[in-house]
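Protocol step 6 of 9: fold each sequence in the batch and record its structure tokens directly after the sequence line. For illustration, a two-sequence batch is reproduced in full.

Sequence one:
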Amino acid sequence: MERIYAAEVVTATEGVVLSRWSGSAVKRVDAPVELLDIFPTLCEMSDLPIPSRVQGRSLVPLMEGPVARGTHDGSISAFKRTESVGRPMIGVQLPVPLAWGYSYRTSRYRFIRWAVPKRFKASTTFVDLFDLETDPGETRNIASLPSSAALVVTLKADAPRSSVRCMLS
């Protein structure tokens, strides 16, 4: 059975080490970043201009010192399920043989909207919400809890304006 889902274990990118100066101490930055950020970071580190069409943001400010927040409020990932499989954590079957999962991860939460292709705005979608602070293994979907209703609305609104935003709204 295929087990593709948008959990932290799947979307995290570990081991990217960028250092502007040889011999500088390695620093772990706990902020949402995307792989799109690596190219503009390398450009800035090499004193090259960052092309205007590049979507990422340089990580140099995060590397050079304390900043109030990261370059992004959250990061986005997209996943495709190629067969009708249950949602791994709660055993619910997907309504059709193919679905896309769009994940928006902030420093504390992962919000996932699962959608059926060509019907992204239809009622054939459902959401997952995980509190990574209290549930780092993403085993308890809190999206349907009454106490999470306002948070789901907020995370939908906070999703970055990108081609994926329409899928998360």
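Sequence two, same batch, same settings:
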Amino acid sequence: MFKAINYWTFGPSALGGEYDIVKAMEEAKNAGYAGIELCLGSKGELTFDAKEAQCRDLVKAAKRIGIKISSVASGEYWGVSPTSSKKSVRDRAAKYTRNALQITKWLGTDAFLYVPGAVKPEFDPKAEVVPYGEAYDRALQQAKAAAKVAEKLKVYLCVENVWNSMLYSPVEMRDFIKRVGSRYVGSYFDPANVVEHGYADHWVPVLGKLIKRIHAKDYSRKVGGFPEGFKVAIGKGDTPWATVLKQLKKVGYKGPLTAEIITPEPMPGLVKRTSQQLDGIMAKA
């Protein structure tokens, strides 16, 4: 495993896609990361309309700096949900996914973080509540369609476990991925996202080699809730990192351990501190 960092970790401007990507690469490299996860949005420097030339320039910059573009993510599916009751929204989500997979390929990596939709985002009281059966069927239909694109491009569609009120058990997540029926659909496992609802150390033995990427943050049950529960340093919360990392080694995972610390306020030194926190949990595995 090697250390990587999600672009959003570079602060509030990064959440809006406005933080200079090359600068983020340089800062990540200087802080000891070997990889960076870039993020797509509907606005900002890197969008779903990005062209091959722009991606090629970013790949060149990464090579010059000496850092790997290790994956691509997007948070747009919370607002443009693949399980929405509105067909127009689902169609837009499908287009986002097709474009994102192509952009991921252009960026020289093989993993796109995918939120499969939601019954209801737990952190949004105004969000639509989609009946579970309908949400599941729509999520499966969307993932199957995306899998065809992923297969052609040889890019993994990595379904992340998130606070979306669905796929909350490792068995259900495994079975969902297997029902899609493509070797290019896997898991983007986020252990900290599990802590509020279950046991993170139960997931790796079930998912096994379906795991293509890992997010790293932490969560405190004592504080609890969103986003408060996540405001704890990696290794200081209730995520059983030592056990999870040992399990990952056992199933042969050798990819990035990608820090994802989302903060609405500037936190000077966060990128460097997070790198040191990753060193701490990796040393115990």
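Proceed to step 7 once all outputs are recorded. Observation for sequence two: The radius of gyration is 17 Å.
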